[in-house]
Write a structure and sequence with these properties.
The protein is mainly beta. It has one helix at 38-41, and strands spanning 3-6, 10-11, 18-21, 26-28, 33-35, 50-53, 59-63, 73-80, 87-94, 97-104, 116-121, 127-130. 3% of the residues lie in helices and 43% in strands.
Length: 137
């Protein structure tokens, strides 16, 4: 089954993902696991495909350390940092999946292309909907 994290945060359309545990909101993806609010997953069966939306401004990016990323986070190399006026949009490659996070333009200089960063977001930042591409038997 597949879950897609969207709204410019992660566009994950071709890799298997699943709602692993509706009671805890755990969603499994090949690159990392994350949680959504359990109330958002209530009533959905394990293995259900989801569409998960997170605004780019809801993500947090920091330099990767040798430690594992925190919960609801992953390490990914920085691909690009386009300037969008008051914000810069960081584009990261999470094992073939594009992650986009907005940062203040003033903070743009602290990140370098090719550098591995930790990307995190709060479960409360997730909006969960049934995947419109799902056809139920």
């Amino acid at each position: 089954m597949e879950a897609r994290l969207e709204a410019a945060l992660i566009r994950a359309a071709e890799v298997e993902r699943e709602l692993a545990d509706p009671a805890t909101g755990l969603v499994r993806m090949p690159a990392f696991n994350f949680t959504v609010p359990p109330v958002a997953a209530a009533g959905l069966p394990a293995g259900r495909r989801l569409l998960v939306l997170v605004r780019p401004a809801a993500g947090h990016v920091s330099p990767a350390s040798r430690q594992a990323p925190p919960a609801n986070g992953a390490a990914a190399p920085l691909e690009a940092t386009p300037f969008l006026g008051p914000v810069s949009r960081l584009s990261l490659d999470l094992q073939g999946q594009r992650i986009v996070a907005d940062i203040s333009t003033e903070d743009r200089g602290q990140f370098k292309r090719g550098e591995t960063l930790h990307f995190t977001f709060s479960p409360d930042a997730c909006q969960v909907m049934s995947d419109p591409e799902v056809t139920e038997p």
